[in-house]
Design brief:
Elements lengths: L2 H14 L3 H6 L2 E11 L3 E3 L4 E11 L7 E7 L2 E8 L5 E5 L8 E9 L2 E4 L3 E6 L5 E4 L3 E3 L3 E7 L7 E7 L2 E8 L3 E7 L4 E13 L2 E4 L6 E6 L4 E7 L9 E9 L10 E7 L2 E6 L2 E7 L7 E8 L2 E8 L10 E5 L8 E7 L14 E5 L5 E5 L2 E5 L5 E9 L2 E4 L3 E3 L9 E4 L3 E3 L4 E6 L7 E7 L2 E8 L6 E5 L10 E6 L16 E3 L6 E5 L11 E6 L6 E7 L7 E5 L3 E6 L8 E8 L4 E3 L3 E3 L5 H44 L1
Parallel strand pairs: 2-9, 11-18, 35-41
Antiparallel strand pairs: 1-3, 3-6, 4-5, 4-7, 7-8, 7-9, 10-12, 12-15, 13-14, 13-16, 16-17, 16-18, 19-20, 20-23, 21-22, 21-24, 24-25, 26-27, 27-30, 28-31, 29-30, 31-32, 31-33, 34-36, 36-39, 37-38, 37-40, 42-43, 43-46, 44-45, 44-47, 47-48, 47-49
Amino acid sequence: MVLLPLLTSMLLSSYFHPGSVVDAQRSFTIRNITLSVEPSAEVPRGTNVTIRCTAVVSSSGQEPLNRKYSIYQGSNNIYTKNTITSEDLLYLLPDARVSNTGKYKCAINIEGKNMQSDATKLTVTGLSKPTLHLNKGVVSEGEDVTARCTAPGETGFIFFILDVDSKIIEEKLVNSTEVEFKLRFSSVGYHKVHCTYSVLMMPDSFKSEESNTITVSVKEMSITPVLEIYPQSRIYEGDVLSITCTIRNMAFNPSTAPIYLYLSQGTRLLSSGDTKVNYSTVALAEDPMDFECRLEIGTVAKVTTKMVPVTELFSTPTITMSPTVVFQREDMSLTCNSEKVASERINRENVTYSLEPPNFLLTSTKPGVFSGKTMMYEFNYTCVAQAKGITKYSATLSVKPKVLVSIPKISVVQGRAVLGEPFEILCHSDIGSYPINYTLLWDYEPLNTTTVWLPKEQARFKVTIRRPEEINKFMCEAKNNLKITQDPLSKRLNATVIVPLTEPTLTILPELAEVSEGDQLYLICGTKGSPPVTFKFYRVGDEQPKFTTTSNINHTHYRVNELTKGHGGTYYCEAINQANNVFSERVTVEVQMALWKKALIGGICLVVLSLLVLGCVLYFKSKRGKKEADAELSDRWRK
C-alpha cells in the first residue's frame, strides 16, 4: 500500500516530462574546435571572405545539443549564434575591406562546457583611392573654401590628412568614409591641394595613395596699407618724427570682415586703429628706427615697413681712468668724452658731462674731467653726456683700488731649522693686493726676490746656515706699489735652530780592568748638539735596548747594580735629537771574580799545598826510619 502512491508519482512524472530521463542518461565531450579563413588568410580588397568554425563534439544520446558559437576579432565579440545543428558555423565578410584585417577566434559553449580555437590572422590588402572635392577653385585672399575628402567603400576608423602645397594643413579622425575641411588662403598665387587617409587597425595602420590634386587660384585684394614718415631725409637725433599708417583702395575691399591697423616699432606696438593711425616720437640713433604698418582683414594680413636712418648728434661717451692702477686714497682722475659730434648741428662745447653717482668724492676740474681720491672699496662710475635733450650713458667703469701690502711676517716653513742643512723661509703679508714682490734680506742685503700672483701661492726661499746665530739675520721685504720707496719690512727671523749631534762617547766606570763581581757598573754616554736628546744603551746580542731615557742635557748614564758574570759583553749607546741620530763606539766589559773568592781559593790552595808537603815529609820520614831499622837489624844479624 505504501509503494503504490510512489509508483503512481513516478509514472505521472515520466508522462509529463518525457525528455528528462533521456537527459539524465546523456553525456558529451567537446573534442576540438578550429577556425579557418576562406578562400585564404591573405586576400585583396573586395574579396568575399568566409570565416568557418568547426567543432568536433561526441555525445551518447540521440537528442541534439544546444550550441552557442561566438566569433571574435581581436578581443571584440563580433558575432554570436545559438544552434542545435552539428554543421560548421559560417561567418561571411562580403566585399572585405582593410578594416576586416585582424586575428579571429571561434568559441563554443555547450551546457556550460567551453572551448576556444587558436587565433587565425586575416589580412586584407589594398585601399581605394581617395577623392577630393572643393566648392571653389578661384578665391580672394582670406576667402573660405570647403574641401571634402572621401575614402570610397572603406569601413572602420579613418584618419584623414589634408595637404596644401605639400604641407599638412589639418588632420581628422572619424568613423566615416568622408570628412570636410575648412580652408582659408592668406597668400596670393596658385596652391595645390590633395588628401590622403589611413585606416587604423591597432597596433597597425594602412595608408592610402594620394587623392586627385586640385589647384586653387588665390587673387590679391587691392586694398593695401600705407606708411608715411616725416621728415623723410637728413634726420638727426632729437628730431620729431610724424608717422601715419593708413589704407589705400579702401573702396575695393571685397571682404565683410572687420579691418584693423597696427603701427609697431620692432616688437613694441605704438598705436592701433581701424582706418588711420597717427603717432609722433623723437628720433634716437641708439634705437632701431624700423617701423611697420600692418593691415588685418579677417585672416589676411598685409604689411609695409620703413627704416629711418638717424644721424648721431654725438657718440656714446667713454669713461677712462688715470692712472690705470690706483691704490686706496690715492689721487685719480676720470675723463668722459664723446669722440664724434655732428658739427653741422651742434658744437663740441654743447655736450655736457656728468658722473653717476653725481660727483661722488670727485670734483670737475674741467669739462669732462673729474679728479679726487680713490675710495677704500670698489666703486662704479658711469659717464652721462647730454645735448639738445639727448642723454647717453657710457659703459660702467668699475674702480677697484688696490690695497697696500701689510708688514710681512717671516717664519721657517717647518718651524725649525737644522744647522748645516737646507731649510725654507716663508714670507707672508696678511693684507695686500696681488701681485706682491717678496725679497729675502740678509742684514738688509737682498738675497732673492719672488712674485706672488694668487692667494694660494707662497713666497718661499731655500737657505742654509752654518752657525745658530745666523738665523736672526734674515728679514723679509714686501712690495706691491712701485710708487712707494719705503717698503714694509718684517722683523728679524726668530726660529729654533737644531744643532746635529756629534758621535757620542761611551765611558765605563770603574776602569775596565777593575770591574768585578758585586760591583756597580756605570755606562756614561755623552754627546754635543741641541737637546732634548734621547739616549739608548745596547748590548750586542740583545734585540731591545737595555735602557732608554730623554734628557735636556747632553749626557746621561746607565747603572748596573750587583755585577755578575752574566753582565759581561759588548756595549754601545745611541743619541737621538730632532736633527739626527748617532752611535758610539763599542766597548767590551769583562766582569772579574770577586776578591773574597780569590782569597778563599788562595787559602784553599795553601791548605792543600801544606797538606801535601806534610804528607811528603811524613812519607819520607817513615821510609827513612824503616831503612834505619832494617840496617840495625842486619847488623845485629851479622853480629
